[in-house]
TrEMBL record:
InterPro entries: TRAP_TAXI (IPR011852). It holds the Pfam family NMT1_3. This is C4-dicarboxylate ABC transporter substrate-binding protein. Gene3D superfamilies: Periplasmic binding protein-like II. NCBIfam families: TRAP_TAXI (TIGR02122).
Length: 306
């Protein structure tokens, strides 16, 4: 074969690869990193499922899922370019967006419910009764810590409790060992790790604190955790906050659009991973105020006429 024919053949092969790449979305070289959350939490379980779905949907290497301390940690990582996509609670997103307008949302996903957890035999029945007690308030730089600080302040308990920073698994272990009297957790329903120990745990109703909490932010709502969620004797009133999938504005619009499409195409798998994902849908997905939608995400919603 002459050099000319060989060169022509290589050029044709290269052109064919470009065509095939375009037909398959052109994402083959994309390497994604997802900031999830505590092991055993809802973020982590959904992130693992989403990584598998995106791998198949975009025909890319499986995205790397990073276990983190939660929302505050995740925002720092996405802003620093250490991750591409992050699970972030709306109150944290609202707070950080003010100084970081490069943040954008792909979608609103499931809601987090604030859990104030004590031992089943505890005499603590209200937030006010946490005064003078030992409390685990979540991992440092977590959304749990962020919201726990707000609740303790609203209840007039700042400086009146002994605080310790512990992740979910460590908080449960410390409570069962008697090293703390209560712990805070913010997560979807059910949170598998809490469900595992539900017969030894009880949730505290925070209805009396909700007027103060709702006055702090429009993203806070009032909700009920049904008794059946964790085999409790009665439902409890608590605070609910939405979660967003967060990226940087600089993310390629085609990639952002494909990620949103992959998210909603994977609703069934996500719901199988955790029933908290049953609320993931296109129509509430667009509601990410006060965080703006990424232009690629907005393009997807407009195409869906949302």
């Amino acid at each position: 074969m002459t050099r000319t024919r060989r060169t022509r053949g290589l050029a044709m092969a290269a052109a064919l690869l470009l065509v095939l790449s375009a037909c398959t979305g052109g994402f083959g070289n994309l390497h994604l990193r997802i900031a999830a959350g505590n092991p055993g939490g809802v973020y982590d379980g959904l992130a693992q499922t989403l990584a598998t779905a995106w791998q198949a949907d975009l025909d890319i290497a499986r995205p790397e899922v990073l276990q983190t301390d939660g929302s505050l940690d995740n925002v720092k990582r996405v802003l620093a370019g250490q991750v591409d996509v992050a699970f972030v609670a709306a109150d944290v997103a609202e707070d950080k967006y003010k100084a970081n307008p490069e943040l954008a949302a792909l979608a609103r996903i499931h809601d987090d419910y604030l859990h104030v957890v004590v031992r089943r035999t505890s005499d603590i029945r209200s937030v006010g009764q946490l005064r003078g007690r030992r409390i685990a308030i979540g991992s440092p730089a977590s959304g749990v810590e962020f919201i726990a600080d707000k609740l303790l302040d609203a209840a007039g308990l700042t400086g009146s409790v002994t605080r310790s920073s512990r992740g979910l698994n460590e908080s449960i272990a410390a409570l069962l060992r008697g090293e703390v009297d209560a712990f805070f957790w913010s997560g979807g329903l059910p949170t598998p790790r809490i469900q595992k120990y539900q017969d030894e745990l009880r949730l505290v109703d925070i209805a009396d604190q909700m007027p103060k909490m709702r006055a702090l932010s429009e993203v806070y709502g009032t909700a009920t955790i049904p008794a059946s969620t964790y085999n409790q004797s009665a439902p409890v009133t608590t605070l609910v906050v939405p979660n967003f999938l967060v990226v940087r504005q600089s993310m390629n619009a085609d990639v952002a659009e494909a990620l949103v499409r992959g998210l909603f195409d994977a609703r069934h798998q996500l719901a199988q991973a955790n029933s908290a994902a049953l609320s993931i849908d296109v129509h509430p997905g667009i509601e990410t105020q006060p965080l703006p939608l990424h232009p690629g995400a907005l393009r997807y919603y407009r195409a869906e006429k949302t």
